[in-house]
Amino acid sequence: MTAIGHLSTGLWLKGRFPRAPLPLLLIAAALPDIVWATFNLMRHPGQAPLEVVQVASPFSFIGDQHLLLQPWSHALLSNLLMAMLLAGLTFVAYRDRHVASAVGLAVVGHWLLDFLVHDADVTLWPSQTAQPVGPPFVWDAAHPKLGLFSTQPLLGFALQTLVVLACTAAFLRAFPIAQQRGRLKMLVGMTLLSAASLPIFLPGGMTQMIGGSTQLVLGAAVEMLVVGWAVLALSRWAVGRNLEQGPLSRGDDEAVVFVHQLLKATGLACWLLAGVYLLQSMLDAQAAPHVGWTSVVMALLFVFTGRRLLQKNPSALWWAAALTFFAGPLVRVLTDVGRLGPTLFLLELSLAVAVAVFIRTLLQRNLAL
């Protein structure tokens, strides 16, 4: 599925779990592709790539992308682990199993949709030697490993459009406050977003735009970002302010309790990063001592910051921002990236964005913590 197909599942889940924040559902639905883009773009000289995508030359249509290696981003087990991790942090923050379940389902749903339309390039567990599974339906008997997008791209586009419209309809049914005009805005907008993905399904439609794997990965990442913003903006435009009635929009007492829960979730995320840094120090200490000791230092800093956050100290958010925005990237620039560099980059970038939004929200809400 392209970006609009995956992100539309966030609308369906928002309709089924109204208390789940739509931005978080969209991020969860895009998470496997975020991991995929990160691991494809961050390659270290002298080390085997974590994931590999190959593009036919000239690139004609979506079937000319060959996902040769993607054991971490598109293995069912790794998707389940990502879903459990994100759902666990969500539960710590929201104390709501329905919200946590929605987030977990958004991650796993990504793998299921790709399994339906991909070639035989997704696996059940994260290993470079794991046997690929799929496609579930063979459309070309001469090439049984080719999926729907490769053999019947227009039918694949029709299936994706059907998924988008069905998810949009489910979303609109859950929000009766949307006036008829609002419903029309949403349906037309989502249809246009779906139609915008048509060129990649047409042979020759994007030949001049994609000249290699890097352009493909960057284009997919930008597409996910732009389409995600468009879906969120369209939802708010069509439904109005009642789309998100979260804990921070309630009374001060409830908002303070929720902020304390968010601080705990952020603290646990810091400890997760500390654990990954410690693991990197164990893996790289002998081959690259500078990576070993800098990883230990970063781990200790994240442990200290996480402890302060678990103690409900909001000022520790500035420490978390400094570590994720500046210290982590600076360490990787000045020293070797390390074996777990791409994973750390992805985790730190995610935490940096979350902390920035958290700080901005607290400054706007002006709560007495």
Topology:
Elements: H1 3-16, H2 22-41, E1 52-55, E2 65-69, H3 76-94, H4 97-117, H5 148-151, H6 153-173, H7 180-195, H8 213-239, H9 252-284, H10 289-310, H11 316-334, H12 341-365
Helix pairs in contact: 1-2, 1-4, 1-6, 1-8, 2-4, 2-8, 2-12, 3-4, 3-9, 6-7, 7-8, 9-10, 9-12, 10-11, 11-12
Describe the structure.
- The protein has 369 residues and is mainly α.
- The chain has helices spanning 3-16, 22-41, 76-94, 97-117, 148-151, 153-173, 180-195, 213-239, 252-284, 289-310, 316-334, 341-365; strands spanning 52-55, 65-69.
- Helix 1 packs parallel to helix 8.
- The longest helix has 33 residues, at 252-284.
Quick summary:
The protein has 369 residues and is an all-alpha fold.
Determine the fraction of residues in helical runs and give it as a percent range.
55-70%
Summed over residues and divided by their number, the pLDDT gives a mean of 91
Instruction: Name the beta content range.
Output: under 5%
How many β-strands, per DSSP?
Answer: 2
Q: Please, what is the oligomeric state?
A: single chain
Features:
mainly alpha; 2 strands; 369 residues; two-stranded antiparallel ribbon
